[in-house]
Amino acid sequence: MNDQPETAVDARTHRWGMGAFFAAQAVFVLVSVLLAAALGNSGASALVLMLVLPTIFAGAVAVVITLVRGNGPRLDFGLQWRWSDVTTGLTIGGIGMISTTIATVLWTRWGPEEAESTVGGLLDEAQLSPALAVVIFLHVWLVAPLCEEMVFRGLLWGAMERLRWSRLTAFVLSTAVFAISHLEPERTVLLLVIAIPIGVARLVTGRLTASVVAHQVNNFIPALGLLLLSLGLLPA
User: Start and end of every CAAX prenyl protease 2/Lysostaphin resistance protein A-like domain (predicted)?
Assistant: First the structure.
């Protein structure tokens, strides 16, 4: 019984809607702008802060909103430790990693030459210490997926369920918004390929744990690449 997807009634017991998602996005943008204005080109540590903190703050806003206007992330997002969800996330994430790797190779070969990720572009010329490189690795691999999932397939998905939109609609729209919100127009199609398996994990389980795990699995290779790049073990 506990491993069944949440029902539409369960998903609508919270009291937050689309405004919650926009609030988290606004915090992300505001923190990014404030850090850029305050730190500017202050070195590698400043760059790491500008990459890490906006995402963490947005994720924190998602948690606070569920506590104030809902039942907490465990119930509202289905962010619970269940081996069935972890297994589903690992399986779908593994499949997604394969499809993403193939899509990335094809995109690198035939896509626009300037289509590089924002994080990768910022780190190309950065001289990071091993400690800072590990921080970026752990953030991209583990922390960013958790925060992003709480915002996109937590707040946004939950808002659409509260409006009584179908789960399939929530999957399609959250996937599209996730890809577009990265503000990398040249890579939007590739980001859609990356986002689809992650959304599928949320769709089939009805809970966020599976999509977080799938997202983390999918981010492992890019995170490892950034680590090796930052340490000078891969060419820029």
Answer: 132-221
